[in-house]
Amino acid sequence: MNDKILLNVALLGFVLLLAGIVFLEPGKEEEPKLVHLTDAETESASRIELHNKESLVFEKRQERWWLVSPFTAPANEVRIRQLLEIPRAESEAHYPLKKDELAKFELDKPKVTLSIGTTRLLFGGSDPLDMRRYVQVGDTLHLVNDDFFHHLTAASTDFVDKKLLPDDDAPNEILLPGLKASLGQNGAWTLEPPSDDAAGMADLITAWRGARAIEVKRSEHPAQGNIVHIGFANGQPPVEFVIVQREPDLLLTRNDWRLQYLLAGESAKSLLSLQKPQPPAAGDPTVIPEEEDESSEPADFEEDLEMPEGEETGEAPDAAPAGAH
């Protein structure tokens, strides 16, 4: 009986030994621990400073980021998130950094400095072999993939929100050249000159609430021209734009922010009137019929075709402009 118990104990010990070998996997190298530029929390930050060719300062005000220097304007939230994520970038290699080595890595005069709260990162040159960026955090030199440096070197106007109107309020008054519209307490718009185009007015409001510039630039001097005035229901200050140009693209200036907004395409034209694009008239030669195959061979090939005797050939219509469908 005792021999049987000893055998069971021996077998149990052997099983535990095998389990330990499988668990520990001797000879297997441990995966290196992931290292970030910094483990500091940045999501709760309320101030960001970015120094490239300009000195940019961002502040969080009532859950909304603003660019406050070198001028004041709502900030592009997407670009701000990109800045907040940079300190969490993976460090592919890191070493102690001595002061006499700063010039070697172009950190004696950093190309960019990013400060988020109390976290400060200095960006120097690139490793000539694999083009990884040198980044100084405290007394440590890091090498990181250089896939975000273009965000750090962007101009101040690239950090401006390209939306023309705030998201948190709806217009209740719009003054355009030749049109004045006011929203009454009954929810109906009153138009001058009078019009019952409720659908057109709804489209106009939708166009303005979704309007987004393709480019934002600084305006050195106050612009002059026709005014677009937009008031809001919650009593926040109205917004005014000066129409600088209408063609080929719409250019609007906010004199209070000294910013110009460039808008392109048919959507830009929809901001300045109730008029909707009219459907093309029947027989309009600039319109390709729906049943016509746009992938047909060019007109040059038609010269090789034999035409029935006595039949006149008509002149091929001009190619339809984009958007004429």
Structure explained in plain terms:
This protein has 325 residues and is α+β, with helices and mostly antiparallel strands. Among the domains are: 113 residues, no CATH class; 99 residues, no CATH class. It is built from five helices and 17 strands. The protein has a nine-stranded antiparallel β-sheet, covered by helices on one side. The protein has an eight-stranded antiparallel β-sheet with strand order 12-11-10-14-15-16-17-13. The longest helix is centred in the N-terminal third of the chain and has 23 residues. The C terminus is likely disordered.
Order of helices and strands: HEEEEHEEEEEHEEEHEEEEEH
Could you state the oligomeric state of the chains shown? single chain
Strand content: 25-35%
Structural class: alpha+beta
Write out the strand line-up for the largest beta sheet, numbering strands in chain order.
4-3-2-1-6-7-8-9-5
By DSSP, the count of extended strands is: 17
Mean pLDDT, to the nearest integer, reads: 81
Measured on Cα atoms, how large is the radius of gyration?
A: 33 Å
First and last CA, distance:
95 Å
- Biggest sheet layout: 9 strands, antiparallel
The low-confidence runs, each spanning 5 or more residues with pLDDT under 50, are 277-281, 283-325
**Shape designation:** elongated
| Count of runs of 4 or more consecutive helical residues | 5
Helix content class:
10-25%
